[in-house]
Structure formats: C-alpha cells, structure tokens
Write a structure and sequence with these properties.
heterodimer; A: mainly beta; Immunoglobulin-like; five-stranded mixed sheet; three-stranded antiparallel sheet; elongated; B: 141 residues; alpha+beta; six-stranded mixed sheet; extended
Chain lengths: 108, 141
Amino acid sequence: MAIKPRIKIKKKASVGEVISIRTKINHRMESGQRIDKDTNEKIPRMIIHTFEASFNGKEIITFNLEGSVSADPYFEFFLKVPEAGELLCKWTDDEGSIFEATKTLAIS
Amino acid sequence: MTLSRRKTLALGSAAISISIIPFDLAFAIKPETQALVDEFTNGASVSEEGALIISAPEIAENGGAVPISINAPGAKRIVIIAENNPNPKVITFNFGELSGRSEVSTRIRLHSTQDLLAVAELNDGSFISSAVNIKVTLGGC
C-alpha cells in the first residue's frame, strides 16, 4: 500500500552544521472515523503510528502519530551533523509493515 | 448629576464591552483537552508565556492538509492537540540527541474551525503552551 518513502537532504555538510531533512511517504492514513457507505460501518484505522529518524544509529527524532495527521505524511526536521554517515528513516503502520529509507551524508 | 439619554447609553455599552472582553481573551479549554494536557505533563503547571511558536495559516481552505510549523527552542517533547477533532490528539514530537533544532513542520487534518494547542516540555522540565485559531473552510477528518 504504502510506497516510495522519500528523503531530501544535502549531499555534503560540515561537522556541527544544522541541516534540514524533509521526508514524505505515500500512505492513505485511514483515520478510523470514515464510514463505509455500502455497509454503514466504520472503516478501521490504518495509519502510520510511529516515525523514527536516526543517524549512524543515534536518535534524531521520534514522532508518535494519531489519526489526525494528513494522508501522505510529510515532515521537516533538523539534524546537527556529528560526522559523515548514514541517515535512516523508519515508518511503522497499524498493519505492522515497516518502511525504511536511507541517505548518505558526506563531510565537505 | 442628571444623566442624559446619550450618556446612559454610552455608559451601558461600556459596561457591556468590559464584561465581554475577559471571555474573549481567556482561552477556554475543553475538559477532554485538559485531560490530554495533564496526561502529557503529569499534572504539572503549564505556563502560557514562553517561546513556543506555532506557524499556521489563519484560514485553511482544505482541512485535510493544513501545513503547520512548530518552533520551541530548548524543547525535548511537543504535543499537538486539535480540540474539535474527533480524535483531538494529533501528534507527539520527541527530539533526540542529534536533533539540530526543536523545530518541525508537518501537515495535519482539522475537522472544523478551532484553536490548535501545542504544549512543550523544555529541557529543564518545565512546560509551556501556546494556541492559535485556525479557520477551516472545508473539514477533513
């Protein structure tokens, strides 16, 4: 269902620099509030409930999402660059699927 | 002292406006919202003065995706609460050791015109909050 996790960052940064990271993933984020017109029953909740970002295994941010985040969740946050390495973003949804994407960052 | 009709009216309207103002300024908080805030703060007191900035459009045409941006220098956790949503708790941000700035942008759903509330826990353990009113043309929950 969910496809194409995307991350946008600079390719190179200097140590100690604060850089922005932008991420987006395609996901319908079914809130659990909508009613199916055919059966008159609520469509079960199916959202990404956790988003984590880490750099070389160290935590940058963790977000806990509830039903009120838009479909195709988009986030922008900031990383203080400690060294060259790999950025890992991880999305976890209600069905237990885990989506991961990585980007490498070099030191200029 | 005799009061003319004009003076009486002026006094009357002044009295009315004075009695209305406090209700306009005070941020009326719903019990459910207060419960969510208490859950986040463990009952600690929350200051409404502090550097917590919510950037959001004054009028959101599409309630399905309202861009918001939160900036709270020195915050380690922030919760966003949309009072009038069927599920008022929107998202919790936790900032880890490599976070460059306690600033984050995202897009959220809003059901109707309402106050959007943000509560942040600072590194020294104190709590600050801020609210912004967003008018929603088309609800999106």
